[in-house]
């Protein structure tokens, strides 16, 4: 059975928000000695993570659009190459010129 759990960076950013909510629930009692783990720094890191996830999603969408455009552009190349190879086979060309790798 396939797994339905979510994984990846987006899920990590979401879980990080849950951590911030948990820490916020402690109120003034939560005052970590490490500056990286203080609430203000956690909130800043979460905002940075959300921004970065947005950038990745945008870049990935642009990449996928370009890949799809190229697939559409070259969709008929295989059939064209087959027709060209078959046409070459019907000629009096030498066997050396007729040799090619089939795709």
Tags for this model:
103 residues; mainly alpha; 4 helices; 68% helix; rod-shaped
Q: What do you see in this structure?
A:
Helix 1 (9-26) runs antiparallel to helix 2. The model has no long low-confidence stretch (mean pLDDT 87). The chain is 68% helix and 0% strand. It has a domain at 9-75. The chain has four helices and no strands. The protein is rod-shaped, with a radius of gyration of 28 Å.
Total strands: 0
The radius of gyration over CA amounts to 28 Å
Report the biggest beta sheet as strand number plus sense, adding barrel if it closes: none
Oligomer type: single chain
How many separate helices? 4
Report the mean per-residue pLDDT as an integer: 87
Structural class: mainly alpha
Distance, first to last CA: 35 Å
The ordered H/E elements are HHHH
Helix fraction bin: 55-70%
As residue ranges, the low-confidence spans are none
What is the structure about, briefly put?
This protein is mainly alpha-helical and 103 residues long. Helix content is 68%, strand content 0%.
